[in-house]
Amino acid sequence: MGVAGCGKTTVGEQLARELGWRFNDADGFHPAANVAKMSAGIPLTDEDRAPWLAAMRKHIEDCLEKNTGAVVTCSALKDAYRQILVVDPPRVKLVYLQGTRDLLWQRISSRKGHFMKPAMLESQLATLEEPTNALTLNIAPGPDQLVAKIRSAFSL
After folding, report:
1. d(C-alpha 94, C-alpha 82), whole Å
2. Cα separation of 5 and 87, whole Å?
3. Contact 2, 138 (CB under 8 A)
4. What is the pLDDT of residues 9-36, one digit of tens each?
5. How many other C-beta atoms lie within 10 A of the C-beta of residue 30?
6. 8-state DSSP, 77
């Protein structure tokens, strides 16, 4: 979890690949209307996020029911969102990828063809409620180091 530009997809894909698990990015769970709003630079409301969170929760529940290992990346900016997603705390773990505003801005500004626009970083940072029950990692090291820390912390 974390704001745009923190490396959720890069780290999540690498972690899933190393573990032989499924990978799903939260972006794939957004209804088309949400993508259109974000593409236009309009921040989502909690009402907009409700079906998105419900779809991710259902996916996580399905993976747990089938005992399928999965990595799901999501901004999960508010505690209320995380309460929806962490359906089984002993089995669903949070990793918070935390970075400085400057590094996040640099990363998001260099993206090509992504619906999340750099100007939306400020709204995400303003919305962010930093978690107290997550593995918090500074994003400055590369993905290899972050994945190694995640695997070590959760004995994966």
Report:
1. 9
2. 26
3. no
4. 999 999 999 999 999 999 899 988 988 8
5. 21
6. -
Q: Are 7 and 139 in contact (CB under 8 A)?
A: yes
CA distances in angstroms from 144 to 2, 105, 150, listed in the order given: 18, 21, 10
Q: Which of 132, 6, 139, 119 is nearest to 73 (CA)?
A: 6
- 139 within 8 A of 146, measured Cβ to Cβ: yes
Strands 135-138 and 70-73: unpaired
Q: Is 96 in contact with 136 (CB distance < 8 Å)?
A: yes
**pLDDT 10s digits, 120-141:** 788 888 889 999 999 999 999 9
Q: Give the residue, 149 or 112, on which the prediction is more confident.
A: 149
Rounded distance, CA 71 to CA 107, Å?
A: 22
Superfamily of domain 8-153: P-loop containing nucleotide triphosphate hydrolases (3.40.50.300)
Distance CA(144)–CA(24), nearest Å, equals 19
- Quote the CA–CA distance of 28 and 33 in Å, as a whole number: 13
Q: How confident is the model at residue 109 (pLDDT cuts 50, 70, 90)?
A: confident
